[in-house]
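#random but structural
TW: two for the price of one
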Amino acid sequence: MALIEVIKYNGNTTEFVWKFPSEDLKLGAQLIVNHSQCAFFIKNGVICDEFNEGRYTLKSANIPLLNKLVNLPFGDKSSFAAEVWYVNMVTKLDNKWGTVKPINLEDPLYGIVIPVRAFGQYGFKIVEPKNFLHTIVGTLKTFSAQKIVEYFNGKVQSSISTVLGKAIVQNKISLLQIAAFQDELSEICRKSFNEEFIKYGIELVNFYFMSINIPEDDTSFIKLKEAKELAMKVKTVGKDIYQMERSFDVMEKAAENEGSAGSMINAGLGLGAGLSLGNAMGNQFSQTGNNLNTNPSTPPPIPNQKKYFFVVNGVRSKPFLISDLPKLISEGIIKQDTLAWTEGLQDWVRTIEIEEIKSLFSQTPPPIPK
């Protein structure tokens, strides 16, 4: 067999590892390593010398580790046996990924679990070729980009649910808004998945979501949209007015029922609604009047009156006087177990434990049962 004069690999974008077909080499042969390549001399399964981009004339001096292992002979035409492996270090960008089955993600704002499908692509390159040969290639003569994609697509499939779910919870991203955060989520996933890639000498240079799909007709998605609409309505009109509107809806539906119960509710609907609306509007006009009233002749409130604070819907209320409380109790805003505080108390206590308020509960009728 003729001794090899030139050792080279032209390379392509589909094979990332290629073994030179002959092991009968000679000193004085030309080793050519093209741009974005790396070449290794291997003997008995041991990786010896490494060559980066350039043209080399093989001499015992420039392959010292192999020379030490096999005691290369002297002379320009001396032959020796060794394997030459090339590693392709180009960046491969067009690697597609996608969820085989929908992944279940919980919306962090509304607590509803939605089935989601995601698709995209990623790019990678070999940055530590020696590590890559050790950990993945083994004894294969070639190793294609497709084999890398097949392996790491499985990693993406198994981890995307965890990484994506954690990201939307930490950043409080609703699934209804997730499409607007695809770039941010892509970078979070890239950093997370790259920790796995780098173990094998591969760098994940980018990771993209091309689409994140939620089925419009899915019942859980419909519930999620309804929950958002409800939250927006309460935020816009205020909780008290929303509850009053709900009360009107319930009364109107009950009044539509046939029979004596419906007739009785019909008879009382106008009166009850009028009184409730009157109270609500009265409160609004009262507040507006207080804001507009700048007449210095209006007498100020009686000084040193004790003020009471309450926790309503998790929020501390404004200060109230004792004269304000009967109305708040009758409307069900303040109850016996509502937390309250006033001067002289070290901490919040239940309203019923404050002596001057306790007696007010026996003076006001209980709320109308539902």
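TW: number two ↓
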Amino acid sequence: MKRDFLTLLDVSPSELAYLVQRAEDMKQQPKPGHCPLLGKSVGLLFEKASTRTRVSFEVGIYELGGQSIFLSPRDVHLSRGEPLSDTARVLSRYLSGLVVRTYSQETIEILAREADIPVINALTDLAHPCQALADLLTMKENVEDLAGTRVTYLGDGNNVANSLIIGCAMMGMHLTVACPEGYDPDPDFLDKGVRLAEESGGSVRMSRDPREASTGADFLYTDVWTSMGQEEESERRRKDFAPFQLNSERLSDAGGRAKILHCLPAHRGEEITDDVIDHPQSVIFDQAENRLHTQKALLEWIIE
């Protein structure tokens, strides 16, 4: 029976812990001859532009012995009105898996429902579960135990925040999401995160005070204030989010010891300052690298 990875809710806490541990093992002890995707082809259907997601998936598929086939909207008949269901059924006849980066969560859910092959969410407007895998691995590399770790997310309650909520909750971590009113995470993800955290011994809470939220944090995390498709809102968003910038003051609030996270690309000088993104305690580029290792673990698990 095929598995899909559309949100972190598609895996159990134990499966999530396995994927993070497996990624760490693959990173620390690479095995060049390990080719679980040998003879397999994986499609990359991307409606949104990408640097890290596309390159990390293509390299990961290659390193696992498979081949990737990149498909933009102009490369397939979706742009000419072919139903998603037909596309999913046809691609299932050729491919061993499908990685999708799109706008609507509904799009990827239709593809997953109609496809006979595993479908992986490489980003939708609702969720970014592959990013959360890399986030958890990066934090695991910097603490003795994820359980009990304090994480503060500053800024827009977007797809990254939604997935981070579920990931931290499953791992027994304490997450504070600080954002201005009107930019909260998806309420369903937030409610499920609160319940999962209660079961794991962690916590998920909201804050309107970036200073209070940052106090005592082990990790400070932010993302862009204006995502793709929101460009017309950029001026208003810059004004609304200005107090939530990740800067030296927030680092000081955390006691000067917090590690810095950002999923990239960063708008330097907006959601994060140069001195913080390039700070010795920044693990942002480790975080970017870890997209490769966690996606390899995911591909091995979900396709093999």
